[in-house]
Amino acid sequence: MNQTPRRKNVVLREKLQSITEVQDVAKHPALLAELTGECPNSIRIVEPPPPIKQYTCLMHVLDFTDKPEFISIAKVVHIHAGPGFAHWLIEGGHLVDVSQTEAQEGDLIFYFSEDSFEHAGLLCPGDRVRSKWGLGHLYDHKILEVPMSYGTEMKFYKRLRYEEAFGFFKQFVEKNGIKL
């Protein structure tokens, strides 16, 4: 039975979800290769700069990944660049909305499920995205070639420079009652 393109995408996303749930990230490349044989896709693993378990998707898109000043604050105060910070950025008007057609290379794409932030990536040429999946690898993929749990709602924002994003992070930490 032939599947519609929409159903094929759902199957791919469900199978990608199961890969991200495998705790041993060393198995992910083989699982992705096997999946590609079953469900053709354009997903590629990108070699990450630091150890992959030490950063999140939002840390990646805000360029926090290997910045000592960010890491030292996050380790000491145990507040990270996660969903709470993403919602704070949006609700505080710190991100500039753009439409998908206006979005440019380097801009941010946020994925939502029922208005809840789930994932972030950086736009690349050709409607592609570079994003970090869970505990796993950094991937280059099409916009909807992501695990199912990342949701189906997407919003696009102008990219923040590191200095600006880090300044917002410090404000977020202080808003959570911790003096820097």
Structure, described:
With 180 residues, the protein is an alpha+beta fold. It has a single domain, classed as endopeptidase fold (from Nostoc punctiforme), CATH 3.90.1720. The protein is 36% helix and 19% strand. It is built from 6 helices and 7 strands. It has helices spanning 5-20, 28-38, 57-61, 68-77, 83-91, 162-175; strands spanning 44-46, 97-98, 108-113, 116-124, 128-132, 138-142, 153-157. It has a 7-stranded antiparallel β-sheet with strand order 1-6-5-4-3-7-2. Strand 3 and strand 4 (116-124) form a beta hairpin. The longest helix has 16 residues, at 5-20. The chain is globular and about 55 Å long.
SSE arrangement:
Elements (H helix, E strand, L loop, with lengths): L4 H16 L7 H11 L5 E3 L10 H5 L6 H10 L5 H9 L5 E2 L9 E6 L2 E9 L3 E5 L5 E5 L10 E5 L4 H14 L5
Antiparallel strand pairs: 1-6, 2-7, 3-4, 3-7, 4-5, 5-6
Helix pairs in contact: 1-2
